[in-house]
Amino acid sequence: MFKVDIEKCIGCGLCVKDCFVKDIVLEDGKADIKNLRCFKCGHCIAICPVNAVSTDEYNMEDVIEYEKNQFSIDPDTFLNFIKFERTIRQFKEKDVEEDKILKIIEAGRFTQTASNAQNVNYVVVKKEIQEVRKLTLESLKTLGEHVLENSTNPLYKKYAKMWIKMHEDFILNPLGVDNLFFKAPVLIIVTSEHPLNAGLASANMKLMVDALGLGTVFSGFFTRACENNLKIKEFLGIEKNQNIVTCMVVGYPNVKYSRTVPRKAPNILWK
């Protein structure tokens, strides 16, 4: 429940004005949260100038007082940070520390979700990464064989042959060339009933990965292998109603880039 400390409340009405679902009213000069339509977004906590609002449903230790120098990022520097992002497929033989993994997930946890559902979940794979690789390659092999038998699309057939070859290479030498997870030490799999929520969380997680000096590749091969394959979900303990939205292959980069790259001009419609 969200509640107001009436001893602190000064009746400014800022929380009333900012409440999207109109669940807060002023009564006798004090804010009163009805907790009827509230979806626990926390705007009332964030906007109160005297810190009079709290909740017993979340950990209030998560709340940080705003200080401009601690919260502001120069826009041009931030844009350059984004432009310098690269997909990493070369990793050092070095483990990723748990505190860094948790910080990446924290970036996902605090990403906005539709209706404040907070329905994004995370699976961290370290010890079982070879078994996950095995299951994924088996699934891709089956999919590749189906594509070769039923598709005439040259791009699909190209990928199909690649998947079959990757599986063959794994069977011959499981510790050899790895074109699936690139011998990275950790996977972070992001799931949700709501794919957009998981996608937005993953985008912020990618920014944190780079800020921590790590690198990642989003494994589309893995997410493709998981489609209609309950075996992988069951092994990972992912519920059937969860969509596997992204698989972040994370590690320390074993490559150094010296500049950004060009991109297509944006397609913008001004109305």
UniProtKB/TrEMBL annotation:
Keywords of the record: Iron, Iron-sulfur, Metal-binding, Oxidoreductase
Membrane spanning residue stretches: none
4Fe-4S ferredoxin-type domain segment(s): 1-28, 29-58
Any single Pfam family the record assigns to this protein: Nitroreductase
Domain of life: Bacteria
PANTHER family the UniProt entry points to: NAD(P)H NITROREDUCTASE YDGI-RELATED, NADH DEHYDROGENASE_NAD(P)H NITROREDUCTASE XCC3605-RELATED
Family under the similarity heading: Belongs to the nitroreductase family.
Protein name (Swiss-Prot/TrEMBL): Nitroreductase family protein
Gene source species: Candidatus Cetobacterium colombiensis
